[in-house]
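Weekly modeling sync, notes
Attendees: AB, CL, MP (scribe)

Item 1: holo prediction request
CL wants a bound-state model with flavin mononucleotide before deciding which constructs to order. AB pointed out that an apo prediction alone won't tell us much about the pocket. Agreed to run with the ligand included and paste results into these notes for async review.

Input as submitted:
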Amino acid sequence: MLQAACLGGLVASGLGSTGCSLKRGQQYEAAAEETWHESDFTKGSDFYRELVRCATLAPSSHNTQPWTFKVQPGAISVLPDYSRRCPQVDPDDHHLFVSLGCAAENLSIAASAAGLHGRVSFQDGCRMEFEPAIRESTALFHAIAHRQCSRCEYDGMQMGTAELKLLEESGTSDSVNVLLLTDRRKVESLLEFVAQGNRAQMGNRAWMQELEHWIRFNETEAVDSRDGLYSRTSGNSETSRFLGSLYLRVTMAAASQTKTDVRNIRSSAGIAVFTSEANNPRNWFEAGRAYERFALQATALGIRTAFINQPVEVLNLRPQFASWLGIVGRRPVLVVRFGHGPAMPRSLRRPLAQVIA
Ligand SMILES: Cc1cc2nc3c(=O)[nH]c(=O)nc-3n(C[C@H](O)[C@H](O)[C@H](O)COP(=O)(O)O)c2cc1C
Protein backbone atom coordinates (compact mmCIF):
# COMPACT_ATOMS: atom_id res chain seq x y z
CA MET A 1 0.00 0.00 0.00
CA LEU A 2 1.05 3.58 -0.62
CA GLN A 3 3.47 4.89 1.95
CA ALA A 4 5.92 7.68 2.56
CA ALA A 5 7.92 7.43 -0.64
CA CYS A 6 5.13 8.10 -3.02
CA LEU A 7 3.94 11.65 -2.82
CA GLY A 8 7.06 13.08 -1.24
CA GLY A 9 7.79 15.31 -4.22
CA LEU A 10 4.51 17.19 -4.02
CA VAL A 11 5.06 19.89 -1.44
CA ALA A 12 1.74 21.45 -0.47
CA SER A 13 2.29 25.20 -0.93
CA GLY A 14 -1.41 25.99 -1.10
CA LEU A 15 -2.37 23.34 -3.62
CA GLY A 16 -5.12 21.76 -1.53
CA SER A 17 -7.80 24.36 -0.84
CA THR A 18 -9.37 24.26 2.61
CA GLY A 19 -12.63 26.05 1.73
CA CYS A 20 -13.24 26.87 5.40
CA SER A 21 -12.59 29.67 7.89
CA LEU A 22 -10.23 27.51 9.96
CA LYS A 23 -6.58 27.71 8.91
CA ARG A 24 -4.78 24.86 7.11
CA GLY A 25 -4.32 21.98 9.56
CA GLN A 26 -6.85 23.30 12.10
CA GLN A 27 -9.86 21.87 10.31
CA TYR A 28 -8.26 18.44 10.28
CA GLU A 29 -6.96 18.69 13.84
CA ALA A 30 -10.45 19.59 15.09
CA ALA A 31 -11.94 16.55 13.34
CA ALA A 32 -9.16 14.28 14.68
CA GLU A 33 -9.73 15.48 18.25
CA GLU A 34 -13.44 14.93 17.89
CA THR A 35 -12.75 11.38 16.65
CA TRP A 36 -10.09 10.22 19.08
CA HIS A 37 -11.00 10.47 22.75
CA GLU A 38 -11.46 7.95 25.56
CA SER A 39 -14.98 7.01 26.61
CA ASP A 40 -16.14 7.44 30.19
CA PHE A 41 -18.58 4.67 31.05
CA THR A 42 -18.81 5.64 34.71
CA LYS A 43 -21.35 8.34 33.83
CA GLY A 44 -24.81 7.84 32.33
CA SER A 45 -26.44 4.55 31.43
CA ASP A 46 -27.31 4.51 27.70
CA PHE A 47 -23.91 3.40 26.49
CA TYR A 48 -24.82 1.84 23.17
CA ARG A 49 -23.95 4.78 20.89
CA GLU A 50 -20.68 5.23 22.74
CA LEU A 51 -19.91 1.52 22.32
CA VAL A 52 -20.45 1.90 18.58
CA ARG A 53 -18.11 4.92 18.54
CA CYS A 54 -15.40 2.79 20.20
CA ALA A 55 -15.96 0.09 17.58
CA THR A 56 -15.49 2.59 14.74
CA LEU A 57 -12.02 3.50 16.04
CA ALA A 58 -10.85 0.10 14.78
CA PRO A 59 -8.53 -0.09 11.76
CA SER A 60 -9.89 -1.07 8.36
CA SER A 61 -8.27 -1.79 5.02
CA HIS A 62 -7.75 1.52 3.10
CA ASN A 63 -9.76 3.07 6.01
CA THR A 64 -12.91 2.08 4.11
CA GLN A 65 -14.77 1.48 7.39
CA PRO A 66 -16.81 -1.28 5.71
CA TRP A 67 -19.31 -1.65 8.55
CA THR A 68 -22.87 -0.92 9.57
CA PHE A 69 -24.07 -1.21 13.16
CA LYS A 70 -27.55 -2.32 14.13
CA VAL A 71 -28.45 -1.29 17.67
CA GLN A 72 -31.23 -3.25 19.37
CA PRO A 73 -32.27 -3.62 23.01
CA GLY A 74 -29.53 -5.74 24.64
CA ALA A 75 -27.53 -6.29 21.42
CA ILE A 76 -25.39 -4.63 18.75
CA SER A 77 -24.69 -6.22 15.35
CA VAL A 78 -21.58 -5.43 13.28
CA LEU A 79 -22.53 -6.05 9.66
CA PRO A 80 -20.56 -5.83 6.39
CA ASP A 81 -21.15 -2.83 4.14
CA TYR A 82 -20.38 -4.41 0.77
CA SER A 83 -20.67 -1.04 -0.98
CA ARG A 84 -17.21 -0.38 0.55
CA ARG A 85 -15.50 -3.46 -0.83
CA CYS A 86 -12.09 -3.16 -2.48
CA PRO A 87 -12.13 -5.90 -5.12
CA GLN A 88 -8.60 -5.16 -6.36
CA VAL A 89 -6.64 -5.21 -3.11
CA ASP A 90 -9.07 -7.59 -1.40
CA PRO A 91 -10.67 -9.83 -4.05
CA ASP A 92 -11.89 -12.46 -1.54
CA ASP A 93 -13.09 -9.91 1.08
CA HIS A 94 -10.71 -11.23 3.72
CA HIS A 95 -9.60 -7.72 4.70
CA LEU A 96 -13.25 -6.70 4.92
CA PHE A 97 -14.02 -9.44 7.45
CA VAL A 98 -10.76 -8.79 9.33
CA SER A 99 -11.89 -5.14 9.65
CA LEU A 100 -15.27 -6.27 11.06
CA GLY A 101 -13.39 -8.45 13.55
CA CYS A 102 -11.28 -5.46 14.66
CA ALA A 103 -14.44 -3.40 15.20
CA ALA A 104 -16.12 -6.25 17.12
CA GLU A 105 -13.08 -6.62 19.38
CA ASN A 106 -13.14 -2.91 20.25
CA LEU A 107 -16.87 -3.25 20.92
CA SER A 108 -16.33 -6.22 23.24
CA ILE A 109 -13.48 -4.56 25.18
CA ALA A 110 -15.44 -1.29 25.52
CA ALA A 111 -18.52 -3.22 26.66
CA SER A 112 -16.46 -4.73 29.50
CA ALA A 113 -15.48 -1.21 30.54
CA ALA A 114 -19.19 -0.35 30.56
CA GLY A 115 -19.99 -3.33 32.79
CA LEU A 116 -21.36 -5.56 30.04
CA HIS A 117 -20.28 -8.97 28.80
CA GLY A 118 -20.78 -9.42 25.05
CA ARG A 119 -21.65 -12.90 23.72
CA VAL A 120 -20.72 -13.10 20.06
CA SER A 121 -22.43 -15.11 17.35
CA PHE A 122 -21.19 -14.95 13.76
CA GLN A 123 -23.15 -15.14 10.54
CA ASP A 124 -22.04 -12.84 7.69
CA GLY A 125 -21.10 -10.31 10.39
CA CYS A 126 -21.59 -10.61 14.11
CA ARG A 127 -24.28 -10.09 16.68
CA MET A 128 -23.15 -9.27 20.22
CA GLU A 129 -25.69 -9.87 22.97
CA PHE A 130 -24.99 -8.16 26.26
CA GLU A 131 -25.50 -9.25 29.83
CA PRO A 132 -24.47 -7.40 33.02
CA ALA A 133 -20.91 -8.08 34.21
CA ILE A 134 -18.27 -6.61 36.49
CA ARG A 135 -16.92 -3.35 35.02
CA GLU A 136 -13.39 -3.91 33.68
CA SER A 137 -11.51 -0.80 32.59
CA THR A 138 -8.42 -2.54 31.18
CA ALA A 139 -5.22 -1.22 29.59
CA LEU A 140 -6.55 -2.50 26.26
CA PHE A 141 -9.71 -0.41 26.71
CA HIS A 142 -7.67 2.76 27.33
CA ALA A 143 -5.55 1.93 24.27
CA ILE A 144 -8.58 2.04 21.90
CA ALA A 145 -8.39 5.85 21.66
CA HIS A 146 -4.61 5.85 21.12
CA ARG A 147 -3.98 2.96 18.67
CA GLN A 148 -2.94 3.87 15.17
CA CYS A 149 -1.17 2.31 12.20
CA SER A 150 2.18 4.12 12.24
CA ARG A 151 3.57 4.00 8.70
CA CYS A 152 6.98 5.43 9.44
CA GLU A 153 10.53 4.37 10.26
CA TYR A 154 10.99 2.88 13.72
CA ASP A 155 14.13 3.05 15.88
CA GLY A 156 15.58 -0.37 14.97
CA MET A 157 15.77 -1.56 18.61
CA GLN A 158 15.05 -5.17 19.54
CA MET A 159 12.23 -6.04 21.92
CA GLY A 160 12.49 -7.81 25.28
CA THR A 161 11.21 -11.37 25.83
CA ALA A 162 8.50 -10.23 28.26
CA GLU A 163 7.05 -7.78 25.72
CA LEU A 164 7.18 -10.37 22.93
CA LYS A 165 5.37 -12.87 25.15
CA LEU A 166 2.59 -10.38 25.92
CA LEU A 167 2.20 -9.59 22.20
CA GLU A 168 2.12 -13.27 21.29
CA GLU A 169 -0.50 -14.08 23.93
CA SER A 170 -2.73 -11.18 22.91
CA GLY A 171 -2.63 -12.18 19.22
CA THR A 172 -3.51 -15.84 19.79
CA SER A 173 -6.97 -17.40 20.03
CA ASP A 174 -8.61 -20.80 19.44
CA SER A 175 -8.43 -20.48 15.65
CA VAL A 176 -5.70 -17.83 15.19
CA ASN A 177 -1.93 -18.10 15.68
CA VAL A 178 0.58 -15.31 15.52
CA LEU A 179 4.17 -16.00 14.46
CA LEU A 180 6.65 -13.41 15.66
CA LEU A 181 9.68 -13.18 13.36
CA THR A 182 12.59 -11.38 14.98
CA ASP A 183 15.54 -13.20 13.41
CA ARG A 184 17.23 -10.67 11.11
CA ARG A 185 17.99 -13.22 8.37
CA LYS A 186 14.39 -14.43 8.29
CA VAL A 187 13.12 -10.84 8.13
CA GLU A 188 15.57 -10.08 5.29
CA SER A 189 14.18 -12.96 3.26
CA LEU A 190 10.63 -11.58 3.71
CA LEU A 191 11.67 -8.51 1.72
CA GLU A 192 11.54 -10.39 -1.59
CA PHE A 193 7.82 -11.19 -1.01
CA VAL A 194 7.13 -7.50 -0.35
CA ALA A 195 9.04 -6.49 -3.50
CA GLN A 196 7.18 -9.07 -5.61
CA GLY A 197 3.87 -7.91 -4.12
CA ASN A 198 4.62 -4.27 -4.97
CA ARG A 199 5.49 -5.18 -8.55
CA ALA A 200 2.25 -7.17 -8.96
CA GLN A 201 0.02 -4.54 -7.35
CA MET A 202 1.56 -1.38 -8.76
CA GLY A 203 1.84 -2.87 -12.22
CA ASN A 204 -1.92 -3.39 -12.20
CA ARG A 205 -3.83 -0.36 -13.46
CA ALA A 206 -7.12 -1.33 -11.79
CA TRP A 207 -5.35 -1.79 -8.45
CA MET A 208 -3.81 1.68 -8.76
CA GLN A 209 -7.19 3.21 -9.68
CA GLU A 210 -8.78 1.67 -6.60
CA LEU A 211 -5.96 3.02 -4.42
CA GLU A 212 -6.33 6.48 -5.97
CA HIS A 213 -10.07 6.38 -5.24
CA TRP A 214 -9.37 5.88 -1.52
CA ILE A 215 -6.52 8.40 -1.16
CA ARG A 216 -7.50 11.71 0.39
CA PHE A 217 -4.87 14.01 -1.09
CA ASN A 218 -5.58 16.98 1.16
CA GLU A 219 -7.28 18.10 4.34
CA THR A 220 -10.51 19.12 2.60
CA GLU A 221 -10.97 15.70 1.03
CA ALA A 222 -10.14 13.95 4.32
CA VAL A 223 -12.50 16.06 6.44
CA ASP A 224 -15.33 15.92 3.91
CA SER A 225 -15.29 12.13 3.61
CA ARG A 226 -13.84 11.14 7.00
CA ASP A 227 -12.63 7.91 5.47
CA GLY A 228 -9.83 6.78 3.15
CA LEU A 229 -6.09 7.28 3.31
CA TYR A 230 -5.20 10.89 4.11
CA SER A 231 -1.77 11.64 2.63
CA ARG A 232 -0.27 12.99 5.88
CA THR A 233 -1.07 9.79 7.81
CA SER A 234 1.48 8.05 5.58
CA GLY A 235 4.05 10.83 5.94
CA ASN A 236 3.22 12.41 2.57
CA SER A 237 2.57 16.04 1.71
CA GLU A 238 -0.79 17.54 0.80
CA THR A 239 -1.63 18.29 -2.78
CA SER A 240 -4.60 18.77 -5.08
CA ARG A 241 -6.35 15.68 -6.46
CA PHE A 242 -5.25 16.66 -9.95
CA LEU A 243 -1.53 16.73 -9.10
CA GLY A 244 -1.71 13.75 -6.74
CA SER A 245 -3.42 11.60 -9.36
CA LEU A 246 -0.95 12.72 -12.01
CA TYR A 247 1.93 11.79 -9.74
CA LEU A 248 0.43 8.36 -9.00
CA ARG A 249 -0.16 7.63 -12.68
CA VAL A 250 3.05 8.97 -14.15
CA THR A 251 5.79 8.74 -11.54
CA MET A 252 4.95 6.26 -8.83
CA ALA A 253 6.89 3.05 -9.23
CA ALA A 254 7.10 -0.26 -7.40
CA ALA A 255 10.86 0.20 -6.96
CA SER A 256 10.52 3.38 -4.88
CA GLN A 257 7.72 1.84 -2.79
CA THR A 258 9.89 -1.22 -2.13
CA LYS A 259 12.79 1.02 -1.09
CA THR A 260 10.56 2.65 1.54
CA ASP A 261 9.17 -0.71 2.69
CA VAL A 262 12.67 -2.19 3.02
CA ARG A 263 13.81 0.78 5.13
CA ASN A 264 10.70 0.57 7.32
CA ILE A 265 10.91 -3.20 7.78
CA ARG A 266 14.63 -3.06 8.64
CA SER A 267 13.85 -0.36 11.24
CA SER A 268 11.28 -2.63 12.97
CA ALA A 269 11.86 -4.93 15.95
CA GLY A 270 10.03 -7.75 14.22
CA ILE A 271 7.24 -9.01 12.00
CA ALA A 272 4.01 -10.62 13.19
CA VAL A 273 2.19 -12.97 10.83
CA PHE A 274 -1.37 -13.91 11.77
CA THR A 275 -2.57 -17.28 10.47
CA SER A 276 -6.02 -18.84 10.65
CA GLU A 277 -6.99 -22.49 10.69
CA ALA A 278 -9.45 -22.13 7.81
CA ASN A 279 -10.01 -19.82 4.89
CA ASN A 280 -13.50 -18.38 5.39
CA PRO A 281 -15.18 -15.18 6.64
CA ARG A 282 -15.57 -16.49 10.18
CA ASN A 283 -11.85 -17.24 10.46
CA TRP A 284 -10.88 -13.88 8.92
CA PHE A 285 -13.20 -12.20 11.42
CA GLU A 286 -11.46 -14.08 14.26
CA ALA A 287 -8.07 -13.04 12.85
CA GLY A 288 -9.29 -9.43 13.01
CA ARG A 289 -10.24 -9.84 16.66
CA ALA A 290 -6.84 -11.35 17.48
CA TYR A 291 -4.97 -8.67 15.52
CA GLU A 292 -6.89 -5.89 17.28
CA ARG A 293 -6.00 -7.29 20.72
CA PHE A 294 -2.37 -7.46 19.57
CA ALA A 295 -2.46 -3.85 18.33
CA LEU A 296 -4.11 -2.61 21.54
CA GLN A 297 -1.62 -4.54 23.68
CA ALA A 298 1.21 -3.05 21.62
CA THR A 299 -0.26 0.45 22.06
CA ALA A 300 -0.54 -0.09 25.82
CA LEU A 301 3.19 -1.01 25.86
CA GLY A 302 4.17 2.03 23.73
CA ILE A 303 4.89 -0.19 20.71
CA ARG A 304 3.91 0.90 17.17
CA THR A 305 2.48 -1.35 14.46
CA ALA A 306 1.94 -1.08 10.68
CA PHE A 307 0.72 -3.54 8.06
CA ILE A 308 2.84 -4.87 5.19
CA ASN A 309 0.21 -7.13 3.68
CA GLN A 310 1.48 -7.50 0.10
CA PRO A 311 2.44 -11.21 0.60
CA VAL A 312 -1.15 -12.10 1.59
CA GLU A 313 -2.95 -9.67 -0.73
CA VAL A 314 -1.46 -10.93 -3.99
CA LEU A 315 -3.26 -14.23 -4.59
CA ASN A 316 -0.47 -16.15 -6.29
CA LEU A 317 2.11 -15.11 -3.65
CA ARG A 318 0.09 -16.54 -0.73
CA PRO A 319 0.93 -20.26 -1.16
CA GLN A 320 4.67 -19.51 -1.56
CA PHE A 321 4.51 -17.25 1.47
CA ALA A 322 2.76 -19.97 3.51
CA SER A 323 5.43 -22.53 2.61
CA TRP A 324 8.21 -20.00 3.39
CA LEU A 325 6.61 -19.65 6.83
CA GLY A 326 6.52 -23.43 7.16
CA ILE A 327 2.82 -23.53 7.98
CA VAL A 328 0.92 -26.51 6.71
CA GLY A 329 -2.86 -26.34 6.28
CA ARG A 330 -3.15 -22.82 7.68
CA ARG A 331 -3.83 -19.55 5.88
CA PRO A 332 -1.60 -16.47 6.44
CA VAL A 333 -4.08 -13.59 6.88
CA LEU A 334 -2.15 -10.51 8.02
CA VAL A 335 1.48 -9.33 8.06
CA VAL A 336 2.39 -6.58 10.54
CA ARG A 337 5.67 -4.96 11.55
CA PHE A 338 6.19 -3.65 15.07
CA GLY A 339 8.72 -1.56 16.97
CA HIS A 340 9.28 1.76 18.69
CA GLY A 341 8.76 4.92 16.69
CA PRO A 342 7.08 8.32 16.52
CA ALA A 343 3.33 9.01 16.36
CA MET A 344 1.83 9.89 12.98
CA PRO A 345 -1.19 12.14 12.25
CA ARG A 346 -4.44 10.35 13.14
CA SER A 347 -6.90 9.14 10.53
CA LEU A 348 -10.59 10.09 10.72
CA ARG A 349 -13.82 8.13 11.09
CA ARG A 350 -17.30 8.70 9.64
CA PRO A 351 -19.92 10.09 12.05
CA LEU A 352 -22.20 7.63 13.87
CA ALA A 353 -25.21 8.83 11.88
CA GLN A 354 -23.61 7.30 8.78
CA VAL A 355 -22.80 3.92 10.30
CA ILE A 356 -25.77 3.12 12.52
CA ALA A 357 -28.54 1.51 10.45
C1 LIG B 1 -7.43 -5.80 7.20
C2 LIG B 1 -6.56 -4.59 7.10
C3 LIG B 1 -5.58 -4.52 6.11
C4 LIG B 1 -4.75 -3.41 6.04
N1 LIG B 1 -3.73 -3.40 5.10
C5 LIG B 1 -2.84 -2.39 5.11
C6 LIG B 1 -1.69 -2.43 4.26
O1 LIG B 1 -1.47 -3.37 3.51
N2 LIG B 1 -0.82 -1.38 4.31
C7 LIG B 1 -1.01 -0.31 5.15
O2 LIG B 1 -0.18 0.60 5.15
N3 LIG B 1 -2.09 -0.25 5.98
C8 LIG B 1 -3.00 -1.27 5.99
N4 LIG B 1 -4.06 -1.24 6.85
C9 LIG B 1 -4.21 -0.12 7.78
C10 LIG B 1 -5.32 0.84 7.37
O3 LIG B 1 -4.95 1.58 6.23
C11 LIG B 1 -5.64 1.74 8.58
O4 LIG B 1 -6.19 0.95 9.59
C12 LIG B 1 -6.58 2.86 8.23
O5 LIG B 1 -6.00 3.74 7.32
C13 LIG B 1 -7.01 3.65 9.47
O6 LIG B 1 -5.89 4.15 10.14
P1 LIG B 1 -5.62 3.85 11.68
O7 LIG B 1 -5.56 2.36 11.84
O8 LIG B 1 -4.30 4.51 11.97
O9 LIG B 1 -6.74 4.44 12.47
C14 LIG B 1 -4.91 -2.34 6.95
C15 LIG B 1 -5.91 -2.42 7.94
C16 LIG B 1 -6.71 -3.54 8.03
C17 LIG B 1 -7.73 -3.66 9.14
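Recorded for review: Strands lie at 67-72, 75-80, 116-122, 126-132, 176-181, 215-216, 229-230, 270-276, 304-307, 331-339.
Action items: CL to compare against the apo run; MP to circulate these notes.
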